Each structure stands twice: as C-alpha cells, then as structure tokens.
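Quick one - inputs below.
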Amino acid sequence: MLPCALLQGVYLAPMDTRDGFDLTTGRGLMACPRCDALHVEEELDAGETLRCVRCGGLLAKPRGGAFVQLIALSFTTVVLMMGAIFFPFLEISRMGFGNATSLFGVALAFADGVLLPLVLAVMVMIVGLPVLRAFLLVYTLAPLAQGRAPYRHAARAFRWTELLRPWSMAEIFVIGTAVALVKVAGLATVHLGPAFWAFCALILVNLASRGFMCQTTIWDAIEDAGLPTDGREAVGGPVP
Amino acid sequence: MTAGADEAPLAPVMTAHRAGLLGCRSCGRVWPQDHAICDRCGAALVPPDRRGLQYVWAWWLAGLVMYVPANLFPMMRTQTFAGLQGSSEATILEGVVELMHYGNYDIAIIVFVASVIVPMAKFLSIAWLAMVAGRPATVEQAHTRLKIYEVVEFIGRWSMIDVFVVAILSALVQLGFVASIHPGPAAVSFALSVAFTMLSAQSFDPRLIWRGLPLRSRTDDQGKD
Ligand SMILES: [Zn+2]
Ligand SMILES: [Zn+2]
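Output:
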C-alpha cells in the first residue's frame, strides 16, 4: 500500500533545517488542523496511529488495503441506499386500513405540496448526500487503488467528501424513525419494512468506512500520484 | 486528550503560525503566508486569527433567531378523526410532556436532550468558545476548550432527530392513515436553527484555542506538565 506520512512534532529553533523539510516554505511539513502544531512527514507503517504532539488529535491512521475497502464500502452504500429508497419503509395498519410505502413513494406523494422543501431537504440529507459522498470517494480512490494517476479534480472531490460528512444524516434518521414509531404506537400498528433494515445496515457500513478512512493518507496518495490541482501547478512545489 | 498530554514534549511546540507559515485546515499541507489557496486540496487558507470569528457569530445569531419561533410555534398538528386525542398542536416541549404522559420516559428523554438540552448547550458553548478564543490560557484550559469544541461539533447534528420525527409522522398520512399529521412552522425553523448552529460550529477555528498559549515565554508548557 502507499506509505503515509509519519508526523513528528517539531520543537526546534525557527531557522532549523533538518533534512526532509523546510521551515521557510513548509515543504515536508504538516500542520495539525486543530492546534496548528507542525509535524515532520515521514514514512508510517499500516496499522500505526499518529496523534498530534500538542492537542492529542488524530493525525494519521493508515490501514492496509484501506483504499480497496473504502471503495467496496462505498458501492455497498449505494446498493443499500437503492434498497432503502424503493423497498417498503414502514407498513401501517389501523382499523382495517393498511398500507405500505417506500421513501420514493413518500417523496412522490409530497411532490406538489407545500411541504416539498422540507421533504426535499430530508431526502437530500438521508439519501442524496450519502450517495454523493460514496460516488466522490470512489472517484477519488479508484485510480489510486490501481496505482494510476488520479482523475481531474480528484482533490476537490475528496475535499467535498469531507465537507459533506456532517450533513449526511442517515443514522440520525434511523433514531428519528424509532421515536416516530413510539409516538404513533397508540394510534396505529406500524411494522418496519426492509428499507428500515437497509438503513440500519448503512449505519454499520458507515462505521466501517470511518474505521478505514485516513484523510492524511489519502491526501498524501493524491499528491504522490501526481495530481494536477485544478490547473494550478504547485509553486515551488512540495511534491517530492 | 490525556494520551496526547502525557506524551507532550518538554520543549514548546513549533506552530505553523509561529514559523511564519500557513497550515491548510482541510488537508494539513503547510504553505508560505502569502498563499491564499492550498495547492494540494484547493481549500482557502485562513490565518488563525480572531477575524474569522465574525462568521461564527453571524451563524450563531441566525441560529438563535430561528430557535425562538422553533420553541413558540407547534412542531406538528395531529388530527385523529376517530381517535382518542382529537385535534392537538404540540410544541417541542409539549411533545416531550405528551410522551411522558403516555409513559414513554426513555423516548421522552431522547427527544428532550436532542431538542432542548443540546441546542441550548450548543449556543452557550459556541458563544463561550468564541469569546475566550485567542485569550491566554493554560495548557489544561486549552485541552478542555478543544474537548468542548469537539463535543459540540459531534453532537450538534443529532438535534435533527425531532425534524425527522415530524417528517416521518407527516409521511404516514400518505399511507392512508386515518389521522392527519402536519408539520408546524416550528419544524422548519428548528431545522434551520440546527443547520445554522452547525455552520457556526464549523466556522470556528479550533487553532484559535491555542493561540493564547504562551509558547516560548517562561510560563510555557514546560512549567505546566
Ligand atoms: Zn494538534
Ligand atoms: Zn489543503
């Protein structure tokens, strides 16, 4: 697998020039995004975990075969999400009236109502963003896993994957469903459909994906594979 | 993080800012200070100073403004034609009371924590973090502040639970349910309030927490650890 940066704390004089990094241009250095502490990049074996010397935050956690695993988990996400959209989500019955519908059906039913914005926002957060993130991650990692040069705008794709992470809320939706079921328990009988279980599986897939994810490793791999960054070439570049 | 604190070196740590460099908050790459955009990931490079706090305060205020109607107006209207409850409107708090009334204490606690405690704690924490940001602090205080920031960042999105509950309940109407449940105006303003406070927390630069630390003076980490 691709090597990851090992990061050691720099506690040296400002004009220090050890091999491998440059305190005047920032070459070979990494700054902790949480506390700004500088670390020197060096090789790191898979399975090691590196924490910031200053704030203790996680800096790098490369795992062997992580790229292939992440790609597989992304495809799993998309497949599960298709099931979660088109299979029945909740089945409800009350006084002889019974019905079952999928999320897709719900979205269609609301398509011309005043609630459209709310439904649209919810659908984006629970379905749209997880799928989009899966595609962006595959777009970033697929060439890297094969040892080829990354696709155009791979850096932007991966940056968006990370930016959208907090807005992808499938796991919160599952808890919301549980609360909603309790609330209607007195009014009707509700059964969970296969789509609900698909959402539960998505949470597990998401957790596994998080375990394999090491942003530092991926940024390093994108850089080492010679990414042309959006047309801007690195000025006096840090690329080795 | 105690693990990090234990391993903390005796000598003061060099920061990108102190070295006259600019670290990318998105990917960690370090650039000279005249760089505006990270060449590796394309993110805008921002120096860790208090100017960035105006975004935090703007989103914070927008979130607070939206939080007021979220509590005053009903989250949803329930009408049961043959049911026991008749027609009712419930605000966030009334919804919690109703859950407790039917004996669902555990669910009531989840909703109360997610919709009342978490948003309140978030407003207070972000305001406090923004106020003390960049002010002198000890290493222990900085670790506490970072911990609070991480908790706020992690937990904020969970407030969306109540919005999803309302969305699911309204969707049940589409299932031929013999009752009608409609989202109230509070559902939208609460969703916006959560989104705005998430943006506020994301705008906060945790590097500011550490800016106040006297790195190389006589009272630096050396004395403390
Ligand atoms: Zn750090
Ligand atoms: Zn960057």
